[in-house]
Design a protein that fits this description.
Layout lengths: L2 H14 L3 H19 L7 H28 L12 H19 L10 H17 L3 H22 L5 H28 L5 H8 L1
Helix pairs in contact: 1-2, 1-4, 1-5, 2-3, 2-6, 3-7, 4-5, 5-6, 6-7
Length: about 200
């Protein structure tokens, strides 16, 4: 199975699946595959290797562990509460895949490797934010967006310094644990962790 197909299946799982635990596994597959794709470009210097290693540990290790810990403490959070039916979500994935393919075939961008995969990953992150009402889905969506941005940046501008990757990773990690803290507080009052509850509180 090629990395592109693996990321396509993982991205589709994020949107179509309705369970947070399975979406988290799909995110880990997505992030790990993206890291494997970026690995050869990160072996240029010892500093780049260290920064890349720290980035992978944060994205594929610490962030998922934090989310998994929260799920074990709050089993009701395993329901992503999708706002669309499964067939509609599947159709959305197909539309996103076609859109990503079309962008990658643009004559001005045709020479960029794996651009379609990067665009599809970005669209999956946005889709997580739009389709699912569970706040944990939004946290995972932000993580997927970070992975897509990193992959797209590496494809479009391969000369970017490795420090940029590490800074982006720290931003994602901080956002993840801030999100977990907020979700923990909201869970005390609303075990369903539904985004609609926040809208009702806003009035």
């Amino acid at each position: 199975m090629t990395p592109e197909l693996l990321m396509l299946l993982a991205g589709a799982t994020l949107i179509v699946n309705g369970r947070t635990g399975q979406a988290l596994i799909a995110y880990i597959v997505l992030a790990a595959t993206a890291s494997a794709i970026l690995l050869p470009a990160s072996l240029s210097t010892p500093t780049a290797v260290v920064l890349f290693s720290v980035s992978v540990i944060l994205k594929v290790g610490l962030a998922p562990i934090g989310l998994r810990w929260f799920l074990r403490a709050n089993p009701t959070a395993d329901d992503l509460s999708p706002s669309m039916s499964a067939p509609v979500r599947l159709l959305l994935v197909i539309v996103m895949a076609i859109a990503a393919k079309s962008i990658s075939q643009d004559p001005a961008l045709a020479a960029v490797p794996m651009l379609g995969t990067a665009v599809f990953t970005l669209l999956c992150g946005i889709g997580m934010l739009m389709v699912h009402r569970n706040l944990l889905a939004h946290v995972i969506g932000l993580l997927v967006l970070g992975t897509g941005i990193e992959l797209a940046g590496a494809m479009l501008a391969p000369g970017l310094p490795a420090a940029f990757e590490l800074g982006a990773t720290f931003d994602v990690l901080v956002a993840t644990f801030i999100g977990l803290a907020l979700v923990r507080a909201i869970a005390t009052h609303n075990p369903l962790l539904d985004v609609d509850a926040l809208r009702r509180l806003r009035g």
